Amino acid sequence: MRGTSLRLLFIIWCGWLTAEAAPFDKPFLHGLFTDHMVLQRDVPCPVWGWTAPGTRVTVSMADKTAAAVAGPDGKWLARIGPFEAGGPYTLTVSGSQTVTLKDVLVGDVWLCSGQSNMEMAITGVNQGYNEVRDANLPNVRLAIVPFSSDYQPPNSVDVPWRVCTPDTVSSNKPIYGGFSAIAFLFGRQINRETNIPVGLIESCLGATAISSWSTPSSLEGLPEYKDFDAFKLYEKNVAESWRLMDPAFETTKEWANPTFNDSNWKTTELPQDWKKQRATDCTGVVWLRREIDIPAGWTGRELVLSFGPIDDKDTVWWNGAFIDSSDTHDWPIPRFYTVPAGLVKGGRTVITIRLIANQGIYGAPEEMYVRTLERESAPVPLAGPWRYCVSTPVAKLDPKKARYPARRDIEASCFQGMIAPLAPFAIKGVIWYQGEGDAGKPSARYHYLLSHLIKDWRALFGVGDFPFAIVQISGFGPFKDQPADSGWAGVREAELQVSQTVPNTGLAVSVDRGEIYNIHPPNKQDVAKRLALVALAQTYGQKNECFGPTYKAMKTEDHAIRLTFDHLAGGLMSLGAGLTGFEIAGADRKFVWANAEIDGETVIVSSSKVPQPVAVRYGWADHPLCNLYNKANLPAPPFRTDSPQ
């Protein structure tokens, strides 16, 4: 018995040495933990990373220390705190290595997500450069999650924190010219009103539907996603799209093979803007190949493949194995692809790219590289000479047949790549501005997905029912002469209903800040102010009205309908000579424009064309002319009295 125990201890000890010696393909400290970060106040804050199994890791800050032991998969997680708001502090993580983070604040961390109106930069808003000029806010910190989507959430993402300055708020990402305007303006007001440090994590992407941000489990609750396998369908669509679009598709299948002889191909230097260079021989379907040497120690490790921005559509192979593809919708977004560990071997490696070239690969040289996930060694540069060949000139392409979805359109893709890797980072709450990408789809579907998104994100981050503030989408498009159905109104209705039924949620109405020809209205100041009012009232306990007059009930009186409202804030008022935006209908549900007038704390709606009214709609259009407010100068959210929900 004693001999057996000794042999077992010897085996464990040998295995321990092997684990310590083996390279680990995950970062010692998750990429959210950097200098200048903000930790969430008043809660034990998770700090995590990866190291050899069984390794003890300690986390220290101020007068507190926490410890954890890496599990069989190498992951360790320690919870330090709670701390009161304050700082700056130094946070030290010690284990198989030591990392020291400086200038760490403790305050409130808000995750800011959605599509392009959340992504729109501060430089694009009204008086944007004045806002930037005054953006020296040392107690506001900014972090941007890079665009990413994958079959499974990556273990870590690189999310460096920056102190808010005119430079960092205006130039710390390549798209839209700076940090999210809504997020910045919201965080600035929260910091000014509370004097609490604020951390803002921007994780958003334009032209995305809510299904991109939903969890696979919630999508499976809808009939169209019963057999959820969107990524594999995407791969099939990529291949089929290229086959239909490119006449040379069948004859170029072997060009990604590492044994293919490309000696008769031309050579080009990358990165390079072919459009500016007027490189007419680089238009059409262009194939690119480059040989590199992979360090022997990288064998069997997951790698990050970075090219910078590519215009337009690209597909990438690693030693002949398909890696990924991106659509023209993603042309300004730097490409980051994951090379699975099983494909990585030290020594000669061939990277192949097939793309429809316009500008080509046109970023900065330092954006082109291969590296390990944990960055413990220098990356292998990819800038320099590449072999290239045009397989199909642009005149022979049929781009109309290129209809596979962009990766951002794949269900759950943004959740997997841009939300799940952040958890369980401690946050205060979420602000959400999305819905334009779902206009025209059933409002009940959006209600279902948004409700489940909130539930699933709360479960993911594990800090309870955190505040979730929703921007109700703005008006957009021409004004209608007659009442009509509206997909945008359906999204607004779902957002309103979620804010009324899901605990600890709030709504910031922006319908009155839209523009006819601009889906990205530049008045983000008012919208951010309304979001901040919601947070200040519901989360920070300030005694202020944060909602506009909200429909409560209706009553038929003679040939009219009387409407009552919550959130009067001292009374109702119209901005303008009289109320606009009201419609009325009888049992046939044929709506006509209505007369509406304020009567005390109610609104009376009628029309001579509808002697027996049964229903009223307000602001029911893509871009309605509506002007009902309360005395707090907050607008009423659009509604209908005959909502099916």
Descriptive account of the structure:
This protein has 645 residues and is an alpha+beta fold. It folds into three domains: 106-228 and 411-546, SGNH hydrolase (Rossmann fold, 3-Layer(aba) Sandwich), CATH 3.40.50; 231-401, Jelly Rolls; 550-640, no CATH class. The strands form eight sheets. Strands 1, 3, 4, 6, 7, 8, 9, 10, 23, 24 and 25 form an eleven-stranded mixed beta sheet that branches. Strands 11-22-12-18-15-16 form a six-stranded antiparallel beta sheet, with no helix packed on it. α5 (181-194) crosses α12 and α10 crosses α11 (487-501). The chain is globular and about 85 Å long. The termini are far apart.
List the helices and strands and how they pair.
Blueprint: H1 2-21, E1 38-40, E2 45-50, E3 56-61, E4 64-69, E5 75-80, E6 86-94, E7 98-114, H2 116-119, H3 128-133, E8 137-144, E9 161-164, H4 166-171, H5 181-194, E10 198-204, H6 216-219, H7 230-245, E11 266-270, H8 274-277, E12 284-294, E13 303-308, E14 310-311, E15 314-318, E16 321-326, E17 335-339, E18 347-357, E19 360-361, E20 369-372, E21 380-381, E22 384-393, H9 413-419, E23 429-433, H10 443-461, E24 468-472, H11 487-501, E25 505-509, H12 524-538, E26 550-557, E27 560-566, E28 572-574, E29 582-585, E30 592-593, E31 595-599, E32 602-606, E33 615-618, E34 628-630, E35 639-640
Helix pairs in contact: 5-12, 10-11
